[in-house]
Design goal:
Length: 160
């Protein structure tokens, strides 16, 4: 558990589940910052920092994919991983309505609803991964296995 004056929904969920995590923050002036820049700002390797992407399948269901910040989501592999014919990224304008988070501060933990979540297999190459804490400027570091359990996710290869 990290000590911070800021408590996001994601942090409260981690605290309640008694999951240990480290909290990082960076100066963003409240603006979304790309994930590669975030990795450099917090002094961590790009391979350890993951971004959260939200898609909608052909069935109209929403899906969450968590991938390394320097990689791109393979939409075909992503669709296969959730049993869809296809998936496409949601519109930026819809992020808050669907997840409760804003662009640049979307955490896989603590969304408005629980969506099927897939974390890229690259998470198995690092001891901990860093994802958004649910607010721009804040990141949480957690063991991949604990994140998978917390979001009831799956691990699949979903990047190019």
């Amino acid at each position: 558990m990290a000590n911070s004056k800021i408590k996001t929904n994601a942090m409260r969920i981690l605290d309640k589940a008694k999951v240990n995590y480290n909290l990082y923050n960076y100066d963003s002036n409240g603006e979304a910052v790309d994930g590669v820049s975030v990795a450099h700002m917090i002094g961590k390797p790009e391979e350890q920092v993951f971004k959260t992407l939200v898609t909608q399948g052909a069935s109209r269901e929403f899906y969450v994919f968590v991938i390394p910040v320097a990689k791109e989501l393979d939409l075909k592999a992503a669709a296969r991983s959730v049993g869809e014919k296809s998936v496409e990224m949601i519109k930026v304008a819809d992020i808050n309505k669907i997840t409760g988070y804003v662009r640049g501060g979307c955490s896989p933990v603590g969304m408005k609803k629980s969506y099927k979540t897939v974390i890229d297999a690259a998470c198995e190459n690092v001891d901990t991964i860093i994802v958004s804490a649910g607010k721009i400027g804040y990141q949480i570091e957690i063991k991949p296995k604990e994140l998978v359990e917390l979001v009831r996710g799956e691990i699949e290869s979903i990047i190019h």
